[in-house]
Amino acid sequence: MPPARKRTRGYDSARIRAAVLAQFDHVRAGVLTLTPEQFASPTRLGDWTVRELAAHLTMALDGLVRYLGEPEPQRAKPELALLDWPFATVTAAERVDEDTRAVAASTDPAELYARTEAGIAAALPGAPDERLVPTRFGTMRLGDFLVTRTVELIVHTDDLNDATGLGVPYERQALAACARLLADALAVKAPGGSVEVRVPPYAVVQCVAGPRHTRGTPPNVVETDPLTWIRLATGRTTWAAALAAAQVHASGERADLSGVLPVLG
């Protein structure tokens, strides 16, 4: 696992909390319009159907409700920093798949969303950002864990839109936090200063070992929109496909990120 950088980007707690709740509400509204035929449709996530994807979206917050319902771990500090989280997710892929299938098979989607919505409304208010929560990957600050929820919700909202054509909105603050965390994770995975990656209007990071640029226009620049960046960072699209579709603009001999993508396993 790549080490987290010494300095981690700050996130506004109130905005993150509001964004997480708003994005979940957007998803819930969309999912509740789906027909049985749509729930049985395939997704780009292996052999998951839309029903499994919809169930997994509730798990992004249902797990938080469960964590907040448990005693706070008696530790002096978190085990997992925010920038370690993107690299830890791959370690739980099999367990997540098993849990998702079990939830999807056992509970009606409308009931799942109603239960999760009620649970988070009861558990989250008043819980301080510094509270430690026992996640799958180790204890985290609640404030940091909530930032990771924007990644789960935005990435899988995009999966849902791809599979159904629903057009579920992307909450601006959730989209921003997701893009920023994945951009910062790229800078951890490929440390350096020879390439500047721009995801306007949300993030700019420098990465990739080599000569560091200090003045004027950088010679190696990659620029793309937030959703394309998120799809690249999570393996929903490839570097070659994004370039061919003119969704990425890359200039400079080092401006090729194919060897360091995706970021999230």
Question: Overview of this structure, please?
Answer:
This protein is α+β, with helices and mostly antiparallel strands. Helices cover 49% and strands 10% of the residues. The protein is built from ten helices and six strands, in the order ααααααββααβββααβ. It has helices at 13-31, 36-39, 50-69, 85-88, 93-106, 109-123, 142-164, 172-189, 226-233, 239-244; strands spanning 132-135, 138-141, 195-199, 203-207, 221-224, 248-251. The strands form two sheets. It has a four-stranded mixed sheet with strand order 4-3-5-6. A hairpin with a 3-residue loop joins strand 3 and strand 4. Helix 1 (13-31) crosses helix 8 and helix 3 (50-69) packs across helix 5. The longest helix is centred in the middle third of the chain and has 23 residues, at 142-164. It is globular, with a radius of gyration of 19 Å. The N and C termini lie close together (11 Å). The model is unreliable at 1-6 (pLDDT under 50).
Question: How are the elements arranged and paired?
Answer:
Layout: H1 13-31, H2 36-39, H3 50-69, H4 85-88, H5 93-106, H6 109-123, E1 132-135, E2 138-141, H7 142-164, H8 172-189, E3 195-199, E4 203-207, E5 221-224, H9 226-233, H10 239-244, E6 248-251
Parallel strand pairs: 3-5
Antiparallel strand pairs: 1-2, 3-4, 5-6
Per DSSP, the total helix count is 10
SS strand fraction: 5-15%
Order of helices and strands: HHHHHHEEHHEEEHHE
Indicate the mean pLDDT.
93
The low-confidence runs, each spanning 5 or more residues with pLDDT under 50, are: 1-6
Shape: globular
The tally of beta strands, per DSSP, is 6
Largest sheet: 4 strands, mixed
* Fraction in helix: 40-55%
Computed Rg: 19 Å
Q: Main sheet: which strands, in order across?
A: 4-3-5-6
